[in-house]
Amino acid sequence: MARGIHPAILSKGGLGPALRSLARRSAVRVELDLRLPAPRLPERLEVAAYYMTSECLTNAAKHAHARVVSVEAAIRDDVLELTIRDDGAGGAEPGRGSGLIGLIDRVEAIGGKLDVSSPPGEGTTLHVRLPLSGPSTDV
What we know:
Blueprint: H1 8-13, H2 15-25, E1 29-35, H3 43-62, E2 68-76, E3 79-86, H4 100-109, E4 113-117, E5 124-131
Parallel strand pairs: 1-2
Antiparallel strand pairs: 2-3, 3-5, 4-5
Helix pairs in contact: 2-3
């Protein structure tokens, strides 16, 4: 997508409705646990979390051959925490030229941190921490 152009559901409804929409359209079953506040989050966080989840759902279906993905999102201590787990093949490694490098760059550009755990045969877990206040760099 072009920079600055986001799905209407994200722009109008916010992160919760946008993640529910992604889950409905996913090729893999998605279990959502969303504990997000009623007020909207900063746009940079909503955009980063949306695209992170979208990419993970695509990868879970296309590369990991997962059967189910769980997505948890909550605000804890002024940080948006997003955890995405799949039960797929595992073995994803950022250092081996995978698409994870782009996700890490996106998260770090707005002052966040992304941890990846992906033991072969045990699925992949991404844990993202995005501070509610931080660099105003566009995503």
